[in-house]
Amino acid sequence: MAMTVTKEEERNFSRRLDAYVRARDFILGRWRAASTEYLTKKCLDEVPEEERPLHKEAYDFLLAHGAINFGSVQPPASSSGMTAL
């Protein structure tokens, strides 16, 4: 199966593209499984600790580029009243 990435993904993650694609696909899979709910970084708790930094970068990239948490989905509020991401 061929890996499809955007030019911007390639530019941002060029040295670790294969690992990024795995992280991206994991996050997109979680988003698609429950796209009516806001996907937080809490979903990364199940990722091995050594892989989390790249998964967090991928999450931030996907969020910034509108690939996850788009539409009418609202971020959950934390107990402090701040938005939990």
What does this structure look like?
There is one protein chain. By secondary structure, the chain is mainly α. Helices cover 44% and strands 0% of the residues. The radius of gyration is 13 Å and the shape is globular. The N and C termini lie far apart (32 Å). The model has no long low-confidence stretch (mean pLDDT 88).
Shape: globular
| Residues in β-strands, percent | under 5%
Task: Provide the gyration radius in Å.
Answer: 13 Å
Sheet/helix structural class: mainly alpha
Mean pLDDT: 88
Tally the helices: 3
Q: SSE order, as H and E? A: HHH
Termini Cα gap: 32 Å
Report on the biggest sheet.
none
Number of strands: 0
Helical content class: 40-55%
Uncertain ranges? none
Domain SWIRM: 1-79
Pfam family, one: SWIRM
Protein name: SWIRM domain-containing protein
